[in-house]
Amino acid sequence: TRPGASKKQAASVEFRNVTKNYGGVTAVDSVSFTIDAGQLVTLLGPSGCGKTTTLRMIAGLEMASAGQILIGGRDVTNLSAADRDVSMVFQSYALFPHMSVLENVAYGPSVQGASRKDAEAMAVEKLSLVGLSGLERRAPSELSGGQQQRVAVARALVLEPQVLLFDEPLSNLDAKLRRRVREDIRELQQSLNLTVAYVTHDQEEALAVSDRIIVMSNARIAQTGTPRELYEEPADLFVADFIGDANILAGTLTGVEGASADVKIDGLSVRLPHRGAKPGAVKLAVRPDAILLGEGASHGSAIAGRVKKASYLGTQIEYDVETATGDLFVVQYGRKEPIEPGTSVNVTFETHRGVAIIPGA
Ligand code: ATP
């Protein structure tokens, strides 16, 4: 482990049928999941889906109405925040404005009984870890937003928690900085082997930083998986639409053979993993970059279409393509000549990637 790494082991987090009610509102409804030790797991979903409440229940800032919460295998359901060995980085950073950077970070260990000298030594070490050496004497108001965010991270790390929580940590940063800070957080998490639960509503951010993502919708878990699993095999229409762009197409499942299914969409026949779908009407999630456009007269199995609009964006070309089964959003990467609007095209899929039957849709 690298210098500054926690002497404590990162711990797992487990929710067993955890519910949180606020009066008549069920913010979290019988949710179960496990975050393995040393993993970064994102709680992702639209506003109001229950992700912040879930995070606050890990911290002990909210108490579960029902169910069980375990950290490192220990039942912490009824323990207060102070007894849970968890630290949280707040969206607002919540730094003390009248204290220096060093004092902000040394505060936690001081409160826990460390001598001033020891607390400051620990703070200096964590500030170095987040790249803020030399700024110890500044006031928070004399730092950029990105630097304030790092102070907040150092302040959480200095307590050497078993679990570190982030609540929308990038929302106060500009777009350019967001990308760098999320990479820094991921690097720190991996090099220190931290268990991190991370709340965001931004699907790109979640895809970029996570080992696993828990997608929430209406107080429940819609799907849990690696970024790739969620993108390639969405469990329902909500996940298909929320993670990346998806064309949702109606097809007919004509036959099942082993783990594969034959699906007909207009003039196109494709073989896909059947994912438990039964013969009859099915819905497919088709990623914009999994759609292939061929110019010229139709040949064999294809959907007939016509380019309505072409947008040249440098690294990619985006198309709106009109077909009998609805309009398709198509993205082509690589340096190709754009196809002119009005051109007739044959639409086929790259079926080994980015095309999935949505079970139960
Ligand atoms: P956001 O991204 O907007 O913060 P979220 O996914 O984090 O949303 P939560 O903050 O967990 O969602 O809220 C879930 C639901 O619980 C919402 O309907 C919210 O209004 C409600 N809620 C949250 N906190 C309280 C509270 N203290 N009292 C009453 N209702 C609450």
TrEMBL record:
It comes from the Bacteria. Pfam families: ABC_tran, TOBE_2. GO terms for biological process: quaternary ammonium group transport. InterPro entries: AAA+_ATPase, ABC_SmlMolc_Importer, ABC_transporter-like_ATP-bd, ABC_transporter-like_CS, Mo/tungstate-bd_C_term_dom, P-loop_NTPase, Transp-assoc_OB_typ2. Keywords: ATP-binding, Nucleotide-binding, Transport. Residues 13-243 form the ABC transporter domain. One of its GO terms (cellular component) is ATP-binding cassette (ABC) transporter complex. The keyword ATP-binding applies. The keyword ATP-binding applies. GO terms for molecular function: ATP binding; ATP hydrolysis activity; transmembrane transporter activity. SMART domains: AAA. Belongs to the ABC transporter superfamily. PANTHER family: SPERMIDINE/PUTRESCINE IMPORT ATP-BINDING PROTEIN POTA, SPERMIDINE_PUTRESCINE IMPORT ATP-BINDING PROTEIN POTA. This is ABC transporter ATP-binding protein. It comes from Microvirga alba.
